[in-house]
Amino acid sequence: MNETRRAVLEAIADYDVSGAEIAERLDVTRAAVWKHVEALREEGFVIESEGDGYVLESVPEFGESAVEYGLEAPFEIEYHDSIGSTNDRAREAAGEGAENRVVLADEQTGGRGRLDREWAAPSGGVWLSAVLRPSMPPAHAPLVTLAAAVATATAARETGVDAGIKWPNDVLVPTDDGEKKLAGILTEMEGEADRVSWVVVGIGVNANIDAEELPDTATSIREQVGDVDRRTFTQRVLERLDDLLADEEAILDRWRDLALTLGRRVRVETPDGVVEGEAIDVERPGTLLVDTGTETVRVHAGDCEHLRAT
Ligand code: BT5
Questions:
Q1: Is the CB of 122 under 6 A from ligand 1?
Q2: Which atom of ligand 1 is nearest to the CA of 170?
Q3: Does residue 112 sit in the same domain as residue 197?
Q4: What is the SS3 assignment for 177?
Q5: Does 149 share its domain with 280?
Q6: Using N-to-C axis directions, what is the helix angle for 19-26 and 3-14, rounded to 10°?
C-alpha cells in the first residue's frame, strides 16, 4: 500500500476527520485524499462520508490494504484474486530486487508442492509467498522453513485447530482416520557459497475451503472449526514468522513444542535411501535425528512418514 494511502487510512481509522484536515496533515491535495478513499472503497473498505468528514466503518476480509492495515511486521503485500503460483511470482519479484514482499492470493491455478508435486489451491485459502533476504549462509536456510511451520501451526492453534508439525514442513491435524494435512510449506532460494541472496518461503493453508475440494489426505480450518477471518489469520502468520526470524534460538524450541514427529517411529525417504527408526530430536538448521536401534542417523532432507508404534 502506498505511503499516503496508509496514512489516509490510519487518519480515518482513528476518528471522524475531514478531507481538508487529512490533506493538510499529509501535505497533499483534497483531491488526492478523495482518490485514496475511493481506491480503498474499491478494495472493500466501507468508509462513510459524514458532512465533510470520513469514518472507517469496516475493513474487508482479505486483500492488499486489508492485510497491511494493522499488520505488525514489516511486509508489503501484493494481492492477487487468482494467480498461477505465488512462489513463482515471488521468485520473479526477488529477481527484481524485492525484499519483505508478500505475494498473497485467494486462489492459485498452478500451486506447487515440493519436487514439483501439485498443490490444490482453490478460492478461500491463504496462499502466500514471502520474499526474504536473511543474513545467513545458504546452509542455514532450512531454519526458515521450520520458522514458517511454527508460525503457521501457532496461528492455526489460535483459531482452535489442534495443529502440529510433521518434520520438516507439514502442518497436520490428528483425526480419527489418521493425520490430515492443513498446510504445507515450500522454501526456495538463491545464494552464493556463504550468503543467501533471497529466500522465498511459500505457505499454503487450507482455510475457508470445503474438504471435498481437497485431496483425501487434507483438512481445512473450515472443516475443523469453521471459517476463519483470513485477514487476521494472515497477519498472525506473518507476525510470528517475523518474530521467529529475529530470534533463531527460539525456532527450534518452538518447533520441538509443536512437533508431532518427535518420539514417533518414522520412515524417511532420503536422497541416500530409506531411514527407519525413532525420531528423537531436531537440531540446527533442521536436521532430524533418527535412532535406528543400532545408530543415530542425521537426516537433512526427505519425505517423512509417521509409522504406527510397534
Ligand atoms: C508441500 O509440498 O507441502 C508444499 C506446499 C506449498 C504450497 C504453497 S501455497 C503458496 C506457495 N505457492 C506455491 O505454488 N506453493 C506454495 P509437499 O510436501 O510436496 O506436499 C504435496 C502433496 O500434498 C501433494 O502431493 C498432495 O498429496 C498433497 N496436497 C496437495 N494439495 C494439498 C492441499 N491443499 N492440502 C493438503 N495436502 C495437499
A1: no
A2: 3
A3: yes
A4: coil
A5: no
A6: 130
CA 202 – ligand 1 centroid, Å: 10
Under 8 Å CB-to-CB from 209, ≥6 apart: which residues?
122, 123, 124, 125, 220, 222
Residue-range definition of the domain harbouring residue 81: 64-258
Helix (H) or strand (E) holding 20: helix 19-26
Q: How many domains does the chain have?
A: 3
Across 231-258, average pLDDT: 96
How many Å lie between the centroid of ligand 1 and the Cα of residue 245? 23
Q: How many A from CA of 146 to the centre of ligand 1?
A: 16
Going by C-alpha positions, the residue among 283, 252, 287, 280 that lies closest to residue 266 is: 280
pLDDT digits (tens, 9 = 90+) for 68-119: 999 999 999 999 999 999 999 999 999 999 999 999 999 999 999 998 899 9
Give the SS3 label for residue 274: strand
* pLDDT computed for residue 90 by the predictor: 98
Q: Which three cell numbers stand for residue 2?
A: 502506498
Q: Give me the CATH number covering residue 118.
A: 3.30.930.10
Contact 302 CB / ligand 1 (< 6 Å): no
pTM of the model: 0.95
Looking at the fold, whether 131 and 229 belong to one and the same domain comes out as yes
Q: Is residue 294 domain-shared with residue 161, that is, in the same domain?
A: no
Residue 125 Cα, ligand 1 centroid: separation in angstroms?
12
